[in-house]
Structures
1.
Amino acid sequence: MIHVGSQLKVVDNSGANWSKCISIKKKGKHPFATVGMFILITLKNFSNRKKVNKRLIYIGLIVGISFWICRVDGTFVKFFSNFLLLFNKQFKFLGTRVYGCVLKEIKITSLQEKKNTKYFQKIFSYSSSFI
């Protein structure tokens, strides 16, 4: 569960290392974000030679959280840290590679959101494995 103010690790090669959640884009019944949701973030730690800046606001897609996720088949999945991918304001993916694995719940989210399917397609092709 990602709340406002949570620290997240960026797992692509856009140049950012750590980020902080500013707000949640789509709030449902609960005031937190889970896997597959978009959040507004600002960067806390990054490398200087890449295409990201510290004072700008970016959009992040959560690909892994450090909280137990129960699946339909009864299995539970948990990461050691909170992970996200970095997008700009026009939902363009800023990296060209995804480090680590991505959860299958993002595919379910991509089917529910009809207008952002092309952005999810790039993530599926860039990632090496799914859990």
Note: Residues 5 and 21 are 5 Å apart (CA to CA).
2.
Amino acid sequence: MIDQIARIRWEETDSEISALIRESVLIKKYRPRFNVLLKDDKSYVMVGIIKEEFPRVVTMHQIQADAYKKECNSSRVQIKIWLGPYTGVYALKETLAFLRRIFPYCT
């Protein structure tokens, strides 16, 4: 296995949890042959609150959210707050529906 290493890249993160999330994202992206512990087909969901006159709440998969974050840097629409990642999509949608009955918001 060692003779198959092409390069090693080192990244520093702010915390251990952000390092674990980053590791999971990279494993899902590159799907390394030997690192099978964190390899799964789960797709984590993020919740974003869009900064507009009437703020909107949106949900999207983490990969889409990462692309959207890059796109927002050059556009007028900005996500003010990101929440997540969440693993249980169904539970998250139920929670948002419950919160919407108490605190009406745009979708």
Note: The chain is about 35% helix and 20% strand.
